[in-house]
Specification:
- 41% of the residues lie in helices and 14% in strands.
- By secondary structure, it is α/β, with parallel strands linked by helices.
- It folds into two domains: 145 residues, Alpha-Beta Complex (Aspartate Aminotransferase, domain 1), CATH 3.90.1150; 236 residues, Aspartate Aminotransferase, domain 2, CATH 3.40.640.10.
- Strand 6, helix 9 and strand 7 form a beta-alpha-beta unit.
Length: 392
């Protein structure tokens, strides 16, 4: 049967694939430790679930085109957290940040338009840009420099087709948090070259060592007028399955996104929208509790990786991922099989150590593997014992 050339150009998400494979092994009774997940392991806080139940009882079960309560809650949360005012017409509600980014690419990209992304990048960026007939221009970074892009490398990617610069701080997969100076320097490139800035802020509340994530939207009017802030309730409130995300930015682009979405998904689930509004407006204590747990786990992971030979790890400062460089082990033969790249390393770890992680090539960095520490300390201990033994 025929499928489209568009789909043929796109590989399936490797992060979802490895999670599914680990799940399958677990179902077969194999004791797999999964470091593949891109989602918090905590339950969605109870008060958010209660808000969903109330929404059902109140009959909030119809089409919404982005429920007003949610748009108002997003605007209020942005004002509380960033000191910026947005009107509800500056906000588009989508089915998670993934859908927001997809819709945004569809709304701004003409064939051949270029968007600059920073590698290691979140797996879906290049594919979403490709699905919109755009071209992802990649700026490489290294762990030695904290995965922070060099401004000259960003400028080297500029052409007359460049329309936007996409940044993601805290980053999935590296956990890097760009300093205010770095965000400012990147924003200045965007302003000087009349580019949009897409700021994926999905992990903005999961930051360690007393740091704060800087949104380019907070860097003055010249910058803010070109910033599309993308965020969701997924990581902040452990609500990945609820599928609520948004974009806040220039009304013209938001209107284009709403037009596109009106023929695609309409609104996110109305009940989830009401729950998300409660998450954004009610007590933020749960956010801090989860953040503290992630910081403790980050400390543990760093300590375990530092004790391993041939593995280096720039300390993650946010999100819930460690992105160690394991390439010193490439070329080695373990139990009769040769590990030559991140994919074969991951296969080896899954088959021999029964630990699931994600190969770095999915993020444009084959020297690395991604380890999610969104799991219990007990699982971390068990998984790192196994990895350490497998790499000996
Ligand atoms: C950097 C980044 N952006 C966006 C998303 C999408 O999140 P969601 O669609 O659940 O809001 C993810 C999820 O893994 C992510 O890591």
């Amino acid at each position: 049967m025929k499928t489209s050339k568009r789909v043929a150009r796109i590989p399936p998400s490797e992060t979802l694939a490895i999670t599914a494979r680990a799940k399958q092994m677990k179902q077969e009774g194999i004791d797999v430790v999964s470091f593949g997940a891109g989602e918090p392991d905590f339950d969605t806080p109870a008060h958010i679930g209660e808000a969903a139940k109330r929404a059902i009882d109140a009959g909030e079960t119809k089409y919404t085109s982005g429920i007003n309560e949610l748009k108002a809650a997003i605007a209020a949360a942005i004002e509380r957290d960033m000191g910026l005012k947005y009107e509800t017409t500056d906000i588009c509600c989508s089915v998670g940040a993934k859908h927001a980014l997809h819709t945004l690419c569809q709304a701004i990209c003409d064939p051949g338009d270029e968007i600059i992304i920073v590698a290691p990048y979140w797996v879906s960026y290049p594919q979403m840009i490709r699905m919109a007939d755009g071209v992802a221009k990649v700026v490489n970074t290294t762990g030695d420099h904290g995965f922070v892009p060099d401004i000259a490398d960003v400028e080297a990617q500029l052409t007359d087709r460049t329309i936007a610069l996409l940044i993601n701080s805290p980053s999935n997969p590296t956990g890097a948090v760009f300093s205010r100076d770095v965000v400012k320097a990147l924003s200045e490139v965007a302003v000087a070259n009349d580019l949009l800035i897409i700021s994926d802020e999905c992990y903005d509340k999961i930051v360690f060592d007393g740091l704060q994530a800087t949104s380019p939207a907070t860097l003055g009017d010249a910058c803010r007028e070109r910033v599309l802030v993308v965020n969701s309730v997924s990581k902040t409130y452990s609500m990945t399955g609820w599928r609520v995300g948004w974009t806040a930015g220039p009304a013209e682009i938001i209107k284009a996104m709403n037009t596109y979405q009106s023929h695609e998904t309409s609104n996110p689930c109305s009940i989830a929208e009401m729950a998300a509004a409660a998450g954004l407006l009610e007590s933020q204590d749960c956010v801090e509790q989860m953040r503290q747990a992630f910081e403790q786990r980050r400390d543990y992971v760093v300590q375990r990786v530092e004790a391993m030979d041939g593995v280096t790890l720039p300390k993650p400062q946010g999100a819930f991922y460690a992105f160690p460089d394991v390439s010193q082990h490439y070329g080695r033969t373990f139990t009769g099989r040769q590990v030559t790249n991140s994919a074969t390393m991951i296969e080896y770890l899954l088959d021999e150590a029964k630990v699931a992680a994600v190969p770095g090539d999915a993020f444009g960095a084959d020297a690395h593997i991604r380890i999610s520490f969104a799991t219990s300390m007990e699982q971390l201990e068990k998984g790192f014992d196994r990895i350490a033994a497998a790499l000996k």
